[in-house]
Design goal:
By secondary structure, the chain is mainly alpha-helical. It is built from eleven helices and no strands. It starts with a helix and ends in a 9-residue tail after the last helix.
Length: 275
């Protein structure tokens, strides 16, 4: 039990360490910025008239109004299930993650100019607010979902967060490191919330999902999302010419999958087996 309760704190520490590492590489290390820009170049190359409207809609799903509405639904689900502590945790997370991101991005405002960009990315862009919001919604949905639906919710939430992260990159709003930073910020706060829930919540029935098939499906969906807008025989050529882009896209997808999986696995404090 003690080991189980320590896992969210370990996850929080890992997210904090990840934030520091990604931030240093993106903002202070020239070679890190070069790789960041190379990955972004691959994403921006996917922007085309045939998919631009859909990509914009996806990115704007984490604007203030839809974010607030989706967050209110998560709180409502928790209350309907009689999980008052989770409803409170969700409300705190919805505010804390995005507020923290806004504070950090303005404190660490840093010019990262690229001549090939038609519109330069804002100096206050790390971490990404849209990516923080998307991952926060995904993790809050995992927290409030019934145990039997938690694995499926984690998968869908992860795909949603990856989709929003990819969309802001295709549109050239952020660098890939901004997306990673946003995901890690949401993961940090959610891990701390789960650590608190472990201490204050009553046990609920455990559920043991088959993670291997879900993980494989999540990876497949992530790969498909990377190549949206690239047709048929163009896919192989596009990816072969841009190995850094592929590595960056997979890193974003794998981080999202790791976060939703970790929160799903750890969000049943003191669980008792289902009989």
């Amino acid at each position: 039990m003690a080991v189980r309760r320590s896992l969210p704190l370990l996850a929080a520490f890992a997210c904090l360490l990840g934030l520091v590492v990604v931030g240093v590489l993106a903002l202070l290390v020239p070679a890190g910025h070069e790789r960041d820009a190379a990955i972004l170049h691959g994403f921006v190359g996917l922007d085309r008239p045939g998919v631009r409207y859909e990509v914009r809609v996806l990115a704007h799903l984490c604007d203030t109004l839809p974010y607030t509405c989706a967050g209110a639904v998560c709180v409502g689900v928790a209350l309907a299930r009689g999980r008052a502590w989770r409803a409170l945790a969700t409300g705190v997370l919805l505010v804390a993650t995005c507020a923290s991101t806004e504070v950090v991005k303005h404190l660490l405002a840093h010019a990262r100019l690229e001549n090939w960009l038609s519109t330069q990315i804002s100096v206050a862009s790390w971490p990404s607010g849209h990516s923080t919001a998307a991952m926060t919604l995904a993790l809050c949905a995992v927290l409030v979902a019934p145990t039997a639906l938690r694995a499926a919710t984690a998968l869908l939430g992860g795909v949603f967060a990856v989709g929003v992260g990819y969309a802001v990159l295709v549109l050239g709003w952020h660098f890939p490191s901004d997306v990673l930073g946003g995901f890690l910020m949401a993961g940090l706060w959610t891990s701390l919330a789960v650590a608190v829930l472990h201490r204050v919540e009553a046990p609920e029935p455990a559920w043991h999902p088959a993670w291997k098939p879900l993980g494989a499906l999540g990876g497949l969906v992530a790969v498909v999302a990377v190549v949206v807008g690239v047709r048929g025989d163009s896919v192989a050529l596009y990816t072969l010419e841009r190995p850094t882009f592929v590595a960056g896209a997979l890193t974003i997808a794998l981080l999202a999958l790791a976060l939703v999986t970790a929160v799903s696995a750890a969000s049943t404090p003191g669980a008792r087996p289902v009989r």
